[in-house]
Amino acid sequence: MSRPTGWFEQPIRTGLALLVVCAGPLILLAGLGGYVPDDDRTAVVVTGLVWTPLTVVVLALAVGGTVRDQRVWRALDADGVRVMGEVTSAEHIPCGEDERCTRVRMLVTVPGRPPFTTSHLLLGEEVVAVGTRIPIDVHPTRDLFRLADASR
Predict the structure, then answer these.
(1) Ordered DSSP codes for 29-75
(2) Which residues of 83-92 are buried (b: 16+ CB within 10 A; e: fewer)?
(3) Is 131 left (phi over 0), alpha (psi -120 to 50) or beta?
(4) Chain-wide mean pLDDT for the chain?
(5) What burial letters (b/e) apply to 52-81, b meaning 16+ CB within 10 Å?
(6) Each residue of 61-77: pLDDT tens digit?
(7) Angle formed by the axes of helices 38-79 and 11-32, to 10°?
(8) H helix or E strand, kind and range, residue 118
(9) What does the DSSP assignment read for 102-117?
(10) Would the CA dihedral through 34, 35, 40, 46 be positive or negative?
């Protein structure tokens, strides 16, 4: 599994997000800057005043989520312990109009902590036998884990 993707590694999603984030301030600028007819100026300014705080909230959530994901990833890179999760079940399920996925449920045992179960979706109808052991990186004291990169 690779690290979380950055802003500019997803150009379409980043472009759409920037459109949403810039909408409120641009509408407000158009209303206050005289780029709209006088008849519509009040409505445009009010729309800009409503949209601007919404765009600030969207931007704050996006940046905060990205920072949190990167912090979690760094914590696992620095302190993570490699353990083996045991597959307890694997079933093929639909995950889109024409796609199928495999839901894998695992039991993960971490030294010094109670075992926990997790499930992951794998794209495609992969055959995963019950009892198969899959490497997982687990933080020894926090509830952080990820499927491990088998090449590491």
Answers:
(1) HHHHTT-S-HHHHHHHHHHHHHHHHHHHHHHHHHHHHHHHHHHHHHH
(2) bebebeebee
(3) left
(4) 83
(5) beebeeeeeeeeeeeeeeeebbeebeeebe
(6) 878 887 887 887 788 88
(7) 150
(8) strand 116-123
(9) EEEEEEE--TTS--EE
(10) negative
